[in-house]
Structure prediction request, 239 residues.
Amino acid sequence: MHILFVDESGTAPEPAHAEKSPMFVLGGLAVSEDSWVELALRLSSLKDEFGIVGEIKWRYFNRSELSNHATLSHLSIAQRNEFRRNVFNLIRTHAQGLVLSVVVQPSSAYENLFCTSAEEMYEKAFQAITHEFSSYLARLSINNQSNERGLVVADHRNAAQDERLRTFHHANLTQVHFESHRLVEGLFFSASHLSVGTQLADFIAGASFRKHARSDEEFWNHLEENTSDSLELKIRMLP
Prediction:
């Protein structure tokens, strides 16, 4: 069994506010259940090493007032950046699976009629990331001469948004294309502070957002360089 964890960076804006949001990114980390156990244990050890208690989120590390979040208040900027590099070292050396980034430029998406609302933008990005996951499972099945299955865990937003996305995802599962039959059950949600996987997906989304919205490739390159053969990286630009 493989698990795809999904979280976002940036905001999917309504059309009237598209110019204020340069980029919207969904990040995903797909790993086997065995790989997840190893990642969870090593992330716990890494947090202990840096004296971090509680949830880690990409925005807590930014050079702004948010960087004084209590979780990290005892760390200098240099130490926080070193922790982030260590998180990406952990992903690229111990994850066996797929790192995904789906990137949407809101103003272009609305101009090209790719979507008509913020929720539709989120759904289109989510559909792209789950289709990539399904295709990955199909490749694994062929390479391993097996029948690989997966499930999807997304970060909880609010009740109405979660229910809409759950319904949207279920509709996708009833279609025969994109190997959707490889995905088990429906969509699962987890509050990020309770999920190691969605916290790591948040880091992936954050590094991708910085690369595409801020032209700062430092952390994405750190993830990408020397990635093991057992971990694939893929960026998909929409539309």
